[in-house]
Amino acid sequence: MGLLSLLRKLKRTEGEARILVLGLDNAGKTTVLKKLSDDDISTITPTQGFNIKSLNHDGFKLNVWDIGGQKAIRPYWRNYFEQTDAMVYVIDSADRKRIEETGLELADLLEEDKLSGVPVIVLANKQDLVTALSPDEVADGLNLYSIRDRPWQIQACSAKTGEGLQDGMEWLVKQVRPTKK
Amino acid sequence: MFGLMRNLYLHLQKKSAPRSFTIVFLGLDGSGKTTCVAALKGEPTEEATQTWGFSSEKVEVAQSSVEVYDLGGAKSIRRIWENYYAEVHGIVFVVDASDESRLPEVKAAFEEAVSHAYARGKPLLVCSNKQDLAKAASMTANDLRDYLDLDSLKCNHLCVDCSAAGKEGSTPDESFLEGMAWLVRTAGVQYASLQARVEEDVRVEKEKQEKKMEERRLRVEKLRQERLEQAKA
Ligand SMILES: Nc1nc2c(ncn2[C@@H]2O[C@H](COP(=O)(O)OP(=O)(O)OP(=O)(O)O)[C@@H](O)[C@H]2O)c(=O)[nH]1
Ligand SMILES: Nc1nc2c(ncn2[C@@H]2O[C@H](COP(=O)(O)OP(=O)(O)OP(=O)(O)O)[C@@H](O)[C@H]2O)c(=O)[nH]1
Ligand SMILES: [Mg+2]
Ligand SMILES: [Mg+2]
């Protein structure tokens, strides 16, 4: 498990990709990133700024940016849009009350020029909780089917158990076209 | 003088401008939709990741430019299909002919799709896929046409044997590509009426969507206010 084994499997040999991880506060963004890196996930606190995880394999470099999602810092998200190759949008699938709110934030992101055409994977996180929404309920809550200008994918997952994370990242890395930077 | 000619030329060119088509791929998970789309693009059929969403590709079929939509077919994502029917000029339904146990599920999903108001009557290609597998022998295109009772549908339809991913390094399956060409030509013959229908249905859907989003914004704003007040108290 882990991002590095994924990179090995995909045999990407050149270039660099920048992946942006966004979503509301408490969605589990930082936990996802730590779990993918096989780090300890028991002491995670809300992110005030951002975390970066960089991975190298055979000259291919993957940079993953995890940005804090609290309401007060969402206006700063736009500082990170430049040169994004793919976006991970994490939601707390058990937070039914905020599903529409997170949908509106995503809708705003999809209208950003700098993110136009950027493939997006929605991580329907916290599937280990019994109240978690199913993929089609998430697609509906986020109005994903109004998207035509980019590929999108939903991945049901749990950052707690790690289930689904690898599959989701595999889809995402496949969407990234090789670039020379 | 030259300016005028140029103008006329451009005008004529516009009139005969190639029409563009939108076609959606439907079918259960694992039936081979993504593999079919890769074959259309002329790409090697590497192992596809399961689709849990949407992607679109621009391809050329029968000298026309075609945008194909590839959707996820798993049970808990299938509900998204109906959101794409309004804008398509034709439908491809892919079936894994080697898996007899799922045929009832195939039939139910198929019937629900083709009876939808926005899908009904549109040109339809059914692919009896995975014919390279011995188990598919009992479900050839003819069998599938009967099983799905295609002849009872009021639309132009064709059912083809298909093997989207066969032996390694095999070229895209001929009968599938011919089926696609048939679909695009058939949609081309009815283009004027199909396009009028698409435009009208898309307009209606867009209005509905906008209304839905507006209501959503109001609800979210209300919830936010409530949370703020709770926090104060
Ligand atoms: N049950 C469960 N809890 C999870 C899961 N993923 C994250 N959590 C918990 O959710 C809480 C928030 O996780 P974070 O990773 O800090 O969330 P975040 O999206 O980074 O939040 P911000 O940094 O504030 O934007 C923590 O208590 C996590 O332990 C999961 O898959 N299942
Ligand atoms: N033997 C054989 N295998 C095939 C054929 N077409 C597709 N497959 C295999 O069937 C599996 C599923 O194919 P996909 O194209 O991913 O199926 P899909 O319809 O896109 O499935 P979802 O994305 O889950 O809806 C893959 O392992 C393909 O390689 C075929 O004609 N013959
Ligand atoms: Mg965080
Ligand atoms: Mg697929």
UniProtKB/TrEMBL annotation, chain A:
Residues annotated for GTP binding in this entry: 23-30, 69, 125-128
Principal location listed in the UniProt entry: Golgi
SUPFAM superfamilies: P-loop containing nucleoside triphosphate hydrolases
CDD domains from the UniProt entry: Arl3 (cd04155)
Record's keyword annotation contains Cell division: no
Compartment(s) of residence: Golgi apparatus
Binding site for Mg(2+): 30, 47
Record-stated family: Belongs to the small GTPase superfamily. Arf family.
Name of the protein this chain belongs to: ADP-ribosylation factor-like protein 3
Species name: Chloropicon roscoffensis
